[in-house]
């Protein structure tokens, strides 16, 4: 039986193991008689704790506020941190990722001590993924001296991004070599929540992450990136089919192991209802007749109809099956869901010749009559968008699309945490080939990336038609590769963000809200780190490049440039 249903107990058990930095004189005081001795911990029981923690945190970013950054989604209430990047110090996020590293460090130690090579390689792969995410999000970070509190290193130095990325690459190469030769999975199938103990698939995962990080450093360290990508491509061992994707299914027993914002644990459904598709993504999908559109999003509940015969500028009340419902300005989302399922259609009419925005200070654009309507990024108050009659925190905009009802669920189907994908690998190779590197055909990889993404979302049968669309058929440009890679990063938007930061593509336009002056580039080091390890943190901050958007935080701002993009002219 899979170990997943025992994860809550494992998380509690492993939390008892995080006392490794205690002084010897405190050992007796801190011993828990019901705990597990770290020196005897079974690596099988540590491995799923690391994997589930990382996957949960990663999807919370990619489906959460980073989707707001990269204009996949917007929120139409309580939106400052989501739409406008009004961020504070990232202490909880920082603690989470280093917490995963502590557990993973124990996994690695016990795997080496018990001579279980498969688990050792898993730990190396996960260490690379976690450190890579930390450096991607913040910049410089503790690396070579991290996790050494038990050795007396209480104030670790912050290593440069260059050092961290080079270390990540070496870990992944080592892991790949072990997976290729170990064949030592033992009990792993019962505890491996990604691949059921398949060393072959883990090697593909490690090599796909190599492609990711080689491309990540390609502008700064091309002499490492080019031969690295060429070597992985020549090996043929990387994700080539959506069935290879590194994903974690959710078991849905509580909010900690369910899809983020599942309405089973949010009775009011407000977290789901306020999450809306961004117009940037919706418009792309609609223009290209993208079959993923209907998988991810719903049509508007009440569609606007241009009606030049209308005496006034616009209907005050909605219409059901063409008949005005006198006195009814709106119905709740729950009411509309039931009535639409029963076959009713809802509209409001406006006269395009006489219509004037009712609140021009909030929105003075044209009424959007589309079947699918996204919220423009960075609006001053998105609750007013498209003449919504129920503004404010009611979050009942019947004239803007919502996410598919699938995303109200807590498990099953497409609700997976995705750490890396075959589509990503193909788009990386397409970019490499477009650079002239020995990585095959850019067009073939680009087409494969689209096919694999459609496969992921259950619409592979639409590929032959979709690939012929004018805006989709390969035109040989990096912009097109990055656009489709951005689309394919749905629910894994962190990769779309890091690609945008590296390339400036797609050419996203920030909104009009004061804090939306540019898309952010990094997370902010916390005051907790500054207070406890100030010298090292200040050294890392000093190496950041302040920009015209950095604002009062100066170098320690979400708009300051880390090493990875300094001197590249990207993304702005």
Structural class: mainly alpha
Whole-number radius of gyration?
25 Å
- List the total number of helices: 21
Measured as a percent range, the helix fraction is 40-55%
Subunit organisation of the chains:
single chain
Distance between the termini: 51 Å
Order of strands across the widest beta sheet?
Answer: 6-9-7-8
Mean pLDDT, as a whole number? Answer: 91
Tell the overall outline.
globular
Beta-strand content: 5-15%
Task: Please characterize this protein's 3D structure.
The structure is a single chain. With 572 residues, this protein is mainly alpha-helical. 41% of the residues lie in helices and 6% in strands. It has helices at 7-15, 27-30, 43-62, 65-69, 80-83, 91-113, 117-138, 161-181, 199-216, 222-235, 270-273, 279-287, 293-296, 333-341, 422-434, 442-456, 463-466, 478-488, 493-503, 527-532, 534-542; strands spanning 73-75, 141-142, 158-159, 246-249, 275-277, 302-306, 319-320, 323-324, 346-350, 416-420. The strands form 4 sheets. The protein has a 4-stranded mixed β-sheet with strand order 6-9-7-8, with no helix packed on it. A two-stranded antiparallel sheet has the order 1-5. Strands 2-3 form a two-stranded antiparallel ribbon. The longest helix has 23 residues, at 91-113. It is globular, with a radius of gyration of 25 Å. The chain starts with 6 loop residues before the first helix and ends in a 30-residue tail after the last helix. Mean pLDDT is 91; it is low at 6-30.
């Amino acid at each position: 039986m899979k170990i997943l249903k025992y994860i809550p107990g494992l998380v509690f058990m492993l939390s008892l193991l995080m006392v490794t930095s205690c002084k010897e004189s405190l050992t007796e005081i801190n011993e828990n008689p019901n705990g597990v001795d770290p020196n005897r911990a079974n690596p099988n029981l540590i491995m799923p704790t690391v994997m589930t923690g990382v996957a949960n945190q990663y999807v919370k970013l990619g489906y959460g506020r980073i989707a707001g950054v990269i204009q996949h989604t917007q929120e139409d209430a309580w939106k400052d941190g989501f739409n406008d990047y009004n961020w504070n110090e990232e202490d909880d996020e920082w603690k989470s990722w280093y917490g995963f590293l502590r557990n993973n460090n124990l996994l690695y130690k016990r795997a080496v001590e018990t001579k279980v090579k498969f688990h050792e390689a898993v730990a190396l792969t996960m260490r690379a993924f976690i450190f890579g995410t930390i450096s991607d999000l913040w910049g410089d970070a503790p690396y070579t001296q991290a996790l050494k509190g038990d050795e007396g290193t209480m104030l670790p130095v912050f290593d440069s991004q260059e050092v961290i990325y080079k270390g990540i690459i070496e870990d992944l190469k080592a892991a790949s070599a072990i997976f290729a030769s170990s064949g030592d999975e033992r009990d792993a199938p019962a505890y491996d929540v990604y691949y059921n103990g398949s060393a072959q698939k883990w090697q593909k995962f490690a090599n796909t992450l190599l492609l990711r990080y080689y491309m990540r450093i390609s502008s700064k360290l091309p002499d490492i990136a080019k031969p690295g990508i060429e070597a992985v491509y020549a090996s043929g061992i990387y994700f080539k089919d959506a069935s290879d994707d590194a994903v974690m299914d959710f078991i849905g027993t509580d909010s900690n192991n369910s899809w983020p914002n599942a309405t089973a644990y949010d009775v009011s459904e407000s977290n789901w209802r306020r999450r809306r598709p961004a117009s940037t993504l919706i418009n792309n999908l609609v223009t290209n007749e993208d079959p993923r559109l209907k998988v991810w999003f719903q049509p508007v509940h009440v569609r606007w109809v241009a009606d030049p015969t209308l005496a006034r500028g616009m209907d005050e009340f909605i219409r059901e099956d063409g008949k005005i419902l006198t006195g009814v300005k709106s119905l709740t989302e729950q009411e509309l869901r039931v009535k639409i399922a029963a076959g009713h259609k809802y509209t409001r009419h406006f006269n395009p010749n006489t219509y004037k925005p009712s609140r021009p200070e909030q929105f003075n654009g044209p009424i959007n009559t589309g079947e699918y309507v996204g919220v423009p990024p960075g609006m001053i108050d998105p609750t007013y968008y498209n003449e919504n009659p129920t503004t404010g925190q009611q979050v009942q905009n019947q004239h803007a699309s919502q996410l598919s009802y699938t995303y109200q669920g807590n498990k099953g189907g497409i609700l997976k945490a995705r750490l890396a994908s075959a589509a990503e690998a193909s788009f990386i190779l397409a970019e490499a080939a477009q650079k002239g590197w020995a990585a095959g055909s850019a067009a073939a990889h680009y087409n494969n990336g689209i096919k694999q993404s459609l496969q992921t979302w259950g619409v592979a049968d639409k590929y032959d038609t979709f690939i012929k669309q004018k805006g989709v058929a390969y035109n040989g440009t990096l912009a097109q590769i990055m656009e489709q890679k951005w689309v394919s990063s749905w629910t894994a938007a962190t990769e779309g963000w890091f690609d945008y930061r590296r390339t400036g593509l797609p050419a996203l336009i920030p909104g009009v809200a004061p804090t939306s002056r540019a898309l952010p580039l990094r997370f902010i080091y916390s005051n907790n780190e500054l207070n406890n390890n100030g010298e090292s943190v200040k050294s890392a901050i000093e190496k950041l490049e302040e920009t015209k958007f950095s604002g009062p935080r100066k170098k320690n701002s979400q708009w300051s440039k880390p090493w990875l993009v300094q001197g590249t002219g990207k993304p702005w």
